[in-house]
Amino acid sequence: MKYFIEVWGCQMNEHDAETLSGIIEERGYSKAENYLDADLILLHTCCIRAKAEDKVIGRIGVLSKLKKKKKHLIIAVGGCMTQQEDVARYIEKRFKEVDIIYGTHNLNEFASLLESAKADQKQIKAVSDSEGMDIREYVPIKRNDKLKAYVNIIYGCNNFCSYCIVPYVRGREKSREIKYIIQEVKELLDQGFKDITLLGQNVNSYGKDFKDGTNFAKLLKELDVLGDYRLRFMSSHPRDFDEALIDVIKDSKNVCHQIHLPLQSGSDKIIKEMNRGYTKKHYLDLTEYIYKVLPEATISTDIIVGFPGETEEDFQDTLDVVEKVGYDQAYMFQYSIREGTRAAKMTEQIPEAIKKERFQRLLELQNKKSLERNNKMIGKIVEVLVEGFGERNNLTGRTSGNKVVNFKGDKKLTGKLVWVGITDANTWSLFGKVKGE
Ligand code: SAH
Ligand code: SF4
Ligand code: F3S
Fold this sequence. Notes:
By secondary structure, the chain is an alpha/beta fold. It has helices spanning 11-26, 50-69, 85-94, 110-119, 166-170, 178-190, 216-224, 243-251, 268-273, 280-293, 312-325, 352-375; strands at 2-7, 30-31, 40-45, 74-79, 100-102, 124-126, 148-152, 154-155, 174-175, 195-199, 230-234, 258-260, 298-305, 329-334, 381-389, 395-398, 404-407, 417-425, 429-434. The strands form five sheets. The protein has a six-stranded parallel beta sheet, sandwiched between helices.
């Protein structure tokens, strides 16, 4: 029996899909190369923007047709999108071909849902509330990579940024016990993993729910001593990210000087309406301190354009921050109304044409900045973790700051750290030569 998973959304979703793969493989399935070869297909969904949801509905349509020809095919749809009651109900009614509808808090039951779906032809829906759910440890995980691994440290989100659906579909913040995180990282290092990313919607909230003084800085310090490897984390919240944490990073051996610090908007008025809890000045001071203490740091961000009430002047504030910080990379989005959030009810929604036009201007500025930042790397010698062959017979790997580097070399270097002299750059990646060659 073969299975196939299609995943949308963030790293947390990707990692959840690895957990689902582990659970499914324990039931005797193996991964199909192509969805057409699979006996079980999962759509593990995201609902952060309308576009993400539209794509999934399109895919369910395609798979429903496939099932008419392939009667034994089992179709499962779940994750953030189906955690919304109305969406789960819509899929349940509209697509009878979908066998399993599961929520974000029901991954650990997936094996039994699968058994029931196989036993009788009835559609099953399992969407639970997050309250009262405990974190399950020791779940099998089938990882997609042999070098890079994700480790969850905190689930859910309490921030309720006014545009965002995540707190509604992922529930309240729940930190994972420090001993299990340490144990997982130790096991990964024993298995040869070299690059570990700690995941959470707001990693800086780690430990607050334990109310015993545990915090993110403490976790980083404990993980730092476990070996020689690259340790990353995302996302940070500019409200909770502070100078003390930047100092911890500086004093650490393994924590990469790579910081993802979502700005969302540069306008104080919009930041407030977004319920983000910082100011443009606070944000700029933080990034200034990062560059002062960690001069080689790479900084990336998330930005939304066209939030309700955003004027040209507000947008200029966003461009101003992009200009001043000089991000290595930015994930940029046009505001998308999410029913049930506070911003959905705001009256001053921005016309699509204006959102598009602002997005284009932002994209142009950011591309210019990315190229400037990459060009600055030319002439430097950087340590690259080699991931294998990429395009045009080049080896590809990443710097500690997470920049992609392409260079000629032997496949045997895969999984190794090598020193590469940077000779050229474009907006998205660097090119170089292995030192000594
Ligand atoms: N927890 C992370 C981000 C999760 S969602 C954080 O706070 O940084 C990833 C990004 O999607 C957000 O940072 C935001 O930029 C974007 N996003 C969230 N809701 C959105 C919406 N309604 N419309 C457009 N972009 C959105
Ligand atoms: Fe959404 Fe804000 Fe939570 Fe990030 S911090 S997941 S943007 S509510
Ligand atoms: Fe999407 Fe859910 Fe992540 S809504 S961005 S998959 S937490």
